[in-house]
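Entry type: protein chain
Record version: 2
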Amino acid sequence: SFVNGHVLSMVIKSSLKEEGKAEKVTVKTYNYSIPENKIVTLQDLIKEKETTKETVQSTITNDVKQAYNNAKLIADQYGVLYERDLSSDMYKVENATTYFLTQDGYVYIIYAYGNNDYTNEMDIIIF
């Protein structure tokens, strides 16, 4: 958990390893404004960081594309790895559901692919 100003962020990470299946790592986050007694959205955090949705979207697109390209290079040598669908709507800022604010003021957006598939692969976007 992290507290930054009025925002409490909690991150829950879970690993599951079942016989005959790949490890599954899931992540869930909760962000809460203590004085306002309400959930803090990613849009709220973008505003608090004094940046724009477009800048964050560009960061997401570039970082996920780089991770995709890196995974392709590794897969060429070591075999099949988790493959990201770069055209997925999950990478749109407005669809991000797993994010938190650290005590140092950084916002992390987590794409934990284990939330939907049997994999421990994840991408972490920081701004």
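Comment: The mean pLDDT is 95.
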